[in-house]
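Task: encode each sequence below as C-alpha cells.

Item 1
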Amino acid sequence: MTTTTLAALVPLLPFLGAAAGLLLGRTAPGFVRPLAVLPTLTAFALAVLVAVRQGGGRAVDAATELTPTGSVPIELALHIDGFAALVAVLVGLVATSVQIYSTGYLRDDPRYPSYAALVSLFTSAMLLVVYSGDLMVLLVGWEIMGICSYFLVGHYWETPEARAASIKAFLVTKLGDVPFLIGLFALAVDAGSFRITTVLGAVASGGLDHPTLIALLLLAGVAGKSAQFPLHTWLPDAMAGPTPVSALIHAATMVAAGVYFIARLLPVFAASSAALLVMAVMAAVTMVGSGLAALAQDDIKRVLAYSTIGQLGYMTGALAVGDRGAAVFHLLSHGAFKALLFLAAGVIIHAAGTNSLAAMSRMSDLRARIPDAYWTMTVALLALAAIPPFSGFFSKEAVLGAAEHVATGHTQGVPGAAGWVVLVSGLLTALLTAAYAMRLWLLAFRGRGIEAPDHGKQPVAMNAVLWLLAVPSLAFGLATGLLPDWFDGRDLTPTLTTSVLGTGLALVGGLVTYGAWKHTTALAARVPLGAVAAHPEGDAAQVEAEAIASHAAAYGDVAAAPDPADPGRLLLGPLHRHAAVGFHLDVVYTALFVRPVQAGASLVRFLDREVVDTYVRGAGAVPRLLGAAVRRAQTGNVQTYVSALLAGTVILAVAALLVATGA
C-alpha cells in the first residue's frame, strides 16, 4: 500500500468510526466503545507508519481536482512533510489516549455514544488539517473542529456554565474565522491557487501583492483558534466541558491548529516584517498575561487552561522570529505533557470531589489516594516548568534560543525588535510558569486538614493512559538529536545562555513560590477548615458535573472563600483580584460588543413589534372595519335604501352644480 493511500486512511478511519458510532449508539450500545477506540488507534498506527516512510525527507504530495471552478481550482490534495508527519502522530497519540481514558471516565454517562462520536469526528477534522495540501480542504477541517468544540464543551448542558462556555467558544472562534476566510481568498487570488505548494512558490518568487494585509487577516483567525490575545478568553471558560475534552482541545487539536497553520505557511508571514512584529507583540502579551492569570486561579482546570494559552504564546513567539522548527518542537512536547496534565487533573477532581484548589489544600493524604496521578502529574509539571531533563526544557529552550539569535542579529530577515520582545517575555514567562506549576502541585498534593475522601481505585484504563503519556513527557526532549530531518535539519540543541537564564528563572519561580507557601501555611492553620464536599463513589464525569454546578465561582468569579494558604495571593498582592478574572477582558468585551449587540437586538425587536407589526395589523384591520361598516348598512329595510339613494342623488346634484358654477 502506497504512502499516499495510508495517509488518506488516517483521517478517514476516525470519520467512519464517528459515523458508525452515531448510527449504532442507541441500537447496538455494545459496539460504541470499540468504534470509539479502534478506528482512532488504527489511525494512530498508520500515522506512525506514514511518518516512518516519510522519514523527514522529501514531502509526499498528491492531488486530484474536486470539481472545475472556472477560476481558482480546489483540489483534494495531500502535502506531508516532516512537520505534518510528526504532528499527525501527536494527534493520533493524544486522541487514542483520550478515547481510552474516556471509556472509564464516562463509563456511566448516558450521552457517551454521542460524545465518543464527536471526539472521533474532532480527531478526523484535525488530521485533515494536518495532511491537507489545499487551503479550502484545510478550511473544512478547521470549521468542523469549531462545530465539534461547541457540542463537546457543552456536554454538561444541564449546567449554565457549560451552555455559556460552548456558545462563547463558538462565537469567539467564529469572530476570528471571518477575517481568516477573507485572508484565504485574498491569498488564493494573489497566488492563483489554493494549493499550499503553489502558494509557497508564489511567495518565493515575490508573487504576493498584499503580504501584510493577508498575513494580518490570517493571524486574526489563528488568534481565535489558538487562543491568543485578544481572542483567548473562550479557552478558560471551555473548562466547563469534560476533562478528556479539555485534554484533546488543549493538547493536540483545536488550539494547535492555528500554530500549525502558521508553521505551514510561515513564508507568507515572513514576507511582511510588520506582521512578524505584530505576531511577536501578540505572543508576548499572551505569555505574560496568561502566566499572571494562571497564578491567581482557584480552579485546577483553569490554571491548566491559562497555562495552555501561555505555551501557545511560546509557539507563536517562535514563529514570530521565523523558526518553525522550534515552534513545532514545542507543539509536540507540549501536546504530550499537557494531555497528561488534564487527564491527571480529571483523576484528582474525581478523588477530591471538587475543582477547587482551595478545597484541595484543606485535604490531607490526597496524593496517597491517587498515587498514579500524583507521580505522573509531577512529571508533567516538571516538563511544563522546563526543568531539565524533561521534554519541556528542550522545546522551550529551542524557542528562547531562536529568539536570542534574532535579537543578537545572527538571524537575517526578521526584525531584531521581534527577537527582543519574544526573548524578554519568554524569560519572564519561564519564571511565572514555574511559579504557578509549583503552586498547583503544593495546593493539590500538600494539603493539610481533613482526610481526603476515598473513592477507591481509578479504572485501569485511566491510570494506564497517564503512564503512557508520561513517557514522552520525560523522554521526548532527549530524542530530538535523532529527529533533525523532521525539523528542516535545524539543530534543536539548547544554547548555553538561554538554558542558564531560563532554568535559573524557573528555579527561582519555584523556590519563591515554595517559600511563600511555607509562609502562608501558618496563617492557614488558624483558619477554620470548613466543610469540604465528599462525593459518593461513582462516575468521574458525574462528580465533575456536580463540581461545576456546585463550584460556579471557579468558572468566572474569584472564589468566595479565599484560601489563606494560597501563595498566589502573597506573590501577586493587589494584582491578584484582577488576574483572577483575566484582567477584566470579559468585562471590556461585554461593554464593547455584547451590550451594543443586545441593545441593537432590543431596538430591532421593538421596531418589529411596534412599527412593522402595527402596519401589518393595520393592513388587516382597515378592510375588516370597512367590511363591518358595510355589513351594518345592509339592514333589509327598503325605506332606508330609498333614503340613501335620494341622499346620494342630492349630493351628486349639488356637486355637479358647484363644479359648473366654478367653471
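Item 2
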Amino acid sequence: MLLHLRSFSKSITRRKLIDSNFEDTKLNRCLSTTDLIALGIGSTLGAGVYVLSGEVAKKASGPSIILSFLVAAVASVLAGLCYAEFGARVPRAGSAYMYSYVSIGELCAFVTGWNLILSYVIGASSVARAWSATVDGMLGSSNTSYFLKKNMPIGLPYFAEFPDFIAAGLIMVLAGILALGVKESTLINKVFTVVNIAVIVFVILVGLSKSDLDNWNLNPETFNRSGRSDVGDVGQGGFFPFGVSGTLAGAATCFYAFVGFDCIATTGEEVKDPQRSIPISIVVSLLVCFVAYFGVSSVLTLMIPYPQLDTSSPLPKAFECVGMAWARYLVAGGSLCALSTSLMGSIFPMPRIAYAMAEDGLLFSWLGTINSHTKTPLVATILLGFMAALMALLFDLESLVDMMSIGTLMAYSLVAACVLILRYRPDGSSRHSALGDCSSNLLCELPSESVAAEYNDDKANTGQDFYHECQSWSIKSCCCSTECPPSANSSFIANVFVAVVGVLVTLWSAVLVHWLDNFMQPSPFAIVMLIVFSGGLLISCLILWRQPQNSAHLTFKVPLLPFLPILSVMVNVYLMMTFSGSTWVRFSIWMVVGKTISYINIYIHTHTRTYTHLQT
C-alpha cells in the first residue's frame, strides 16, 4: 500500500520534458509574427472598447478612466511578460497548461488545463450571445429575441429566457472555419481586425474634433441645475469625480478588457519562429490594445459629460449628442467585427489545449487526433465548439462568467510562479526539463563541475573551487551569492520561498479586500495583519532576489526578477478575492470534479503509460 501511495505521489508531481527539436510537430507551422499580432489584437480588443469604457466612466471613474485603463494595462503587461518568456522557453501548444507541466507537475497541469478549457468555452458562449444581442439591437422592434421569448420560452432556473439560435449558429460556423485550417482562419481574423482598428481610428480622430475639455472639469452644482433627466451620479466633479478609489475600482473592471492575449501562447506548434514571434506578438498586441482603449475612453469623456454616457451603447449615444447620428451604424459594424474576432480568439485555443492534454494522456486520446489534410485538431475543434454552442443556446451565462475570470486569473498566477521556479532551477536541471536531454528518469540535482568552470572562466578561481564555494554558501545562508550558478540547494530555497510568497499573497489579498470594504471604519487588526504580511512578502522577495539564476539563453526574459512576477501574482490573486462566495462555491465544485478525474486518470494510467517525456 505504501509503495502504491509513493508511486501515486510521484506520478502527480512528474514534470514534462520538451524535446529540443521544436520543429517536430503534427500541426502546420505556417503562422507569422503578423498573424499572431492580429490574433492577439482580435482576441483582446473586443466588446470592451465599445461598451466597457462607457460603463466604467459613468459608474466608477469618470474622466480618470484613462488612468484606470493605464493601471489595468500595466497589470496585464506583467502577466504578458511572463507568458512571453515561456513562449520563448517552451514553444509548444497548450499555453499555461504546458508551462505548469514543465515547471510544477502533472496534477497542477491537469487542473490548469481543465480550468482553461472551461474558461474558453464560457468565454466563447458569452461573446456569441453579445454578438447576437448587438444584431438584435440593430434590428430594432423587429428583433428575434421578442419572437423567441413569446413563442419558445424556457422558464427554468439557470437557463436562458429563450434559446439563442443566432449565437449557437455563429459558434458552429466559426468552429467550422477554424477546423478548415489555421492559415485560412487567421486570414479571416486579420480582415475583421483591420476593420475593427479602422473604426476605432475613426472614432478617435472624429471624437477629438468634437471634444470639449470642460467635460473633464465638471462643476456638480452647475451641472445638476441643468435639469436633464438622463444624467447619472456626478460625484465630486472634476477629473476624479469618484476619488482615487473609484479610479482603482474602474481599473479592476478594465483589467478584463485585456484578457485574451494568452491565446497567442497556444500557437507554439503552428508558428514559423515561435521563440521570437510569440514574445513580440504578446507585447505588441497589449500595446496596441492599450492605445485603442486609452484613445476611445479619452474622446468618449471629452465629447459628452460622463454622467450622460449610455452604459449599453456609449459610442452611438455620444455621436448622436454631437450631431453625428449616422456614425452609429459604422460603430455597430465595428462592434460586430470586434466581437467576431474576440469569438474566434476564444474558440481557437480550446482544441489546442485539449490536443496537448490528450497527447500527454490526460484526456481521451482521440481528442489529440490531427486531420492529415487540414493539420488541425479537427475532432477537438468540432466537439468543443458544439459544447460552447450548446451553452450559448440554452444557458444563462451571467452567473458563469465570474468562473471564467477566476480560471483565467489562476492561469496568469501560475505562469508567473512558473517563471520564478524555472529561473532559479540549476542550469542542468533547467536544460533537462525544458529541452529533454536527460539520460535518467531523475532530476540532475547539481550542475556539473565543467559547467561551473565554464561559468567562472573570467575569474581567478578554478571551476571546481568556485563550484564547492557556491555549494557551501548555499547551505550556510538563504542569501546566496548571485554570481554562483544555481544549485540544488539554492533551487530548493527558491521553491520554498515561492510557496511562501503564494501563501502570503493569498492572506494579504484577503485582508486587503476586507480592509477596503470597511475603509471608513478600518479594523486595527486588519491594518496590523496587512503590515505583517507586506513585511513577510518584502523579506521573501529579497531572499529570492539573492538566489542565483540559471544562465540559459532565451530570446526574451522577464526583467526585474523576482519583483515583476510576484507583483503580477499579487494583482491576480487580489482580483480573484473580489468574487462572491457563490462564485467560489461553483468554482470549487468544478475543481473537485477536475481533481477527481485527474486522480482516477493518473491512477489508471500510472502502470500503462510510458513516460518517456516525464521526470519525477
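Check on item 2: The two ends are 20 Å apart (CA to CA). Residues 166 and 316 are 23 Å apart (CA to CA).
End of task.
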